[in-house]
Amino acid sequence: MPDDDQDATPVPVARPLPQPLEWLFRNRVTGRVTVAQPPNLLLGVFIGAVVVRRVADPEGTAGAAVDVVAGVALTAWAVDEIIRGVNPWRRILGATVLAATAAGVVTS
Predict the structure, then answer these.
(1) Residue 37: predicted pLDDT
(2) Cβ neighbours of residue 89 closer than 8 Å, sequence gap 6 or more
(3) Which of 25, 31, 40, 84 has the most Cβ atoms closer than 10 angstroms to its Cβ?
């Protein structure tokens, strides 16, 4: 009797990540690996403010307002990632961005 497995088409199987990477990148909601996600509204506002700063280079009150909008949006995004990040990587990313933003405020 022929072996049916010899005629079967091989199906690629995803290799599991090493345990530390599983813990770090596995999405706790979907079970998929999540490293990056499409920007949400807060990150979009930050990116928009950075574009306005680079393109228009506003001075005075308008420039200060753009900087405040960018800083508040980035801070709010970072706090949101710390609180609601789908895996430890996203939470660590949020904490790192929050620390870098705070350091930038302190040193300026």
Answers:
(1) 85
(2) 24, 25, 34, 35
(3) 25
3-state secondary structure of 45: helix
Sole residue written with tokens 């870098």: 100
| pLDDT of res. 10 | 57
Integer Cα distance of 20 and 31 in angstroms: 15
> Which residue type does 56 have?
A
What whole-number distance in Å separates Cα of residue 47 and Cα of residue 25?
24
Could you read off the pLDDT of 49-103 as tens digits, one per residue? 999 999 999 999 999 999 999 999 999 999 999 999 999 999 999 999 999 999 9
Q: Return the SS3 of 79.
A: helix
What the block records as the tokens of 87 is: 């895996």
User: φ and ψ at 33, to 5 degrees?
Assistant: -80, 130
| Spatial contact of 42 and 75, defined as CB atoms under 8 Å apart | no
